[in-house]
Please model this.
Amino acid sequence: MKTQTININGMTCGHCVMNVKKELSKVQGLTINAVKNGSAEVVVDETKVTDKKLREAVEEAGYSVVSIQ
Model:
């Protein structure tokens, strides 16, 4: 298990936070620690979750990923 921070562009309000949480919650092997405007902190099972899956979930919510650390 690895903690990662996803830096997200375009989030400005509580509705944005809810959208990102909703999409990230669909990713198997991921636990959400926190989502706030501009970032999300998640714990991932590295055998199941790739950076690509994280990026796709954020993009599905309508935002773009700046970086994943």
